[in-house]
Amino acid sequence: MSSTLGEMSAVELSAAIRHKKVSAREALAAHLDRISEVNPVINAVVTLDAEGAQAKAHEADQLTASGAALPPLHGVPMTHKDTNSTAGMRTTQGSVALRDYVPDADDLIIARLKAAGVISTGKSNVPEFGAGSHTFNDLFGTTTNPYAPTLSAGGSSGGVAAVVASRVQSIGDGSDMGGSLRIPASFCNVVGFRPSTAVIPMPSDTNAYSWLGRTGPMARSVEDIALFMSATAGSDPRVPYPAGLDPEVFRTTLETDMRGVRIGWSHDFGIGVPVDPEVVEHLERQLAVFEALGAIVEEATPDFSGADLVFGNTRALDFAAGLGPILERAGDVIKPEVHWNVEKGFALTARDFIETAAARTRLEVSVQDFFGRYDLFASPCAQVLPFDATLRYPADIAGVPSETYLDWMRSACLLSATGLPVLSVPAGLSSAGLPIGLQLAGNHYTDMQLLRYGRAFEQQTGYAAVAPVLNAASASNAAQAPLTTVGA
Q1: Of 100, 236, 420, 485, which sits most exposed with the smallest number of CB within 10 A?
Q2: Are the C-beta atoms of 157 and 126 separated by less than 8 Å?
Q3: Virtual CA dihedral for 345, 351, 355, 357, nearest 10 degrees?
Q4: At what angle are helices 10-18 and 24-42 packed, to 10 degrees?
Q5: 195: Cα within 13 Å, side-chain hemisphere
């Protein structure tokens, strides 16, 4: 029963619970059993509240028995990304500085998931303050890849990607500023989705106008991504952006006709972004899937020449605003990459802001010119294959040295700078059996159509169905600190 439940999608599991084929308590027991089985290998779950979850599952089963209307994710168990605040449950952001912090309130995405019926069970690991796309920190150690436990699971939503890939849960919540949903999805053979601006709002007490960071879902199927979005999308009065998209949009059909769809593909974004040759060769072969469906694939790209500036300066500003105060209080225990990014933000001048605004304007003009000719932009999601988990980040990409911890993430960061919705879909395995993701981007607020294109690719390939093989023997190969699950 346990393994069968673990393979179920969220759509299937929620339907089984709703129709009384499976109880919420049975679903939770399978979830907790799987954590016990795989967490000693991948170190993905860092806080666990089994007792609290069992009480909630009992309440969910009572609601099922009552005959009342049931929410869309009724009884579905889920750990949450440790950068997303959970009321009454420790939220450390992977930092020793917050090792005992317990929020009083849920972040909006968590509140909406709970309202949709999710049973919250714990928290998944992140790099400190979500900085970087490799999940390690001094508090909990390193999360490793279910497909190769000595290698990185990506980040910053690496814990989420690892538990979804390991069949602990079918979906999970993450966040993405510079690829934090997409790169771990690519590394772990799952789907990661970065929505359009404010489709899932992110209220903030310090900068309600912040646009670079997003919250969003990870899952093993595009259908589950749409289900998650239908439960979490929608405007919030604390966020001064247009309404974005009605959640009902994500309840419409995922069927689409790819005939005549025009796809622009670039392996280097037109600006020489280095990418592992095996990744490029593999993805270029995968483009034939779209052509077989009737799409037209051509070498084409927006002009990304100013995107590095837009991303780098906007990220630095957000880091300085959000993390500057905590560095003043506890900077001696916070990793150097965070210090560097915050200091860069405080060093920005008025001229830097003017140049950033101008570059962002040129980028948007180029993006709209591109989407005047094409329906979809395709590119490598990650520039490298999953790498040695003992590294802080890759020293080089295809022979090009890394100057900062962000350099190997440029393939994702460049698209973040556009503000577009972006989807990473599993695109098969390398010659060594390591996952590779294809990155797809659509125009602003075409989120549901983007999901349709991703599902068309998914239906033809079925790559996410290839599960990792995880057992106790794998733990001896895990390149990380001793693994423990910590109580709430």
Answers
A1: 100
A2: yes
A3: 70
A4: 150
A5: 30
Mean pLDDT, rounded, of the chain: 95
* pLDDT-wise least confident of 139-153, 160-174, 241-255: 241-255
Nearest to 174 by CA among 143, 211, 218, 204: 218
pLDDT tens-digit series, residues 182-194: 999 999 999 999 9
In the chain, the amino acid numbered 214 is R
Statement: the pTM of the whole predicted model exceeds 0.90 = yes
Q: Where are the domains of the chain?
A: 2-487
Q: Which of 386, 392, 467 is nearest to 432 (CA)?
A: 386
Give the tens place of pLDDT for each residue, 284-309. 999 999 999 999 999 999 999 999 99
Cα dist from 219 to 165, 183, 357, 460, whole Å: 8, 13, 34, 18
Please list, in sequence order, all residues whose beta carbon lies within 8 angstroms of the beta carbon of residue 315, skipping any fewer than 6 positions away: 177, 178, 212, 341, 413
Beta strands in 249-295 (DSSP E): 262-265
Catalytically annotated residues:
81, 156, 180
44 in helix, strand or coil? coil
Q: pLDDT tens digits for 239-264?
A: 988 778 999 999 999 999 999 999 99
* b/e sequence 295-318, b meaning 16+ C-beta within 10 Å: bebeebbbbbebbbbbbbbbbbbb
Q: Provide the pairing of β-strand 296-299 with 262-265.
A: parallel
Picking from 152, 153, 186, 190, the residue whose alpha carbon sits closest to that of residue 172 is 190
- CA-CA distance, 110 to 452, in Å (whole number)? 25
Question: What single-letter amino acid sits at 270?
Answer: G
Whether the Cβ atoms of residue 327 and residue 338 lie closer than 8 Å to each other: yes
Q: Which fold would CATH assign to domain 2-487?
A: Amidase signature (AS) enzymes (3.90.1300)
Q: How far apart are CA 122 and CA 78, in angstroms?
A: 7
- Identify the sign of the CA torsion 96, 159, 135, 201: negative
- Alpha carbon distance 477, 301 (integer Å): 41
Report yes or no: 77 and 64 within 8 Å, Cβ to Cβ: no
Residue 475: what pLDDT? 55
Question: What confidence tier does 12 reach under pLDDT thresholds 50, 70, 90?
Answer: very high
pLDDT of residue 244: 85
Note whether 469 and 444 are within 8 A (CB): no
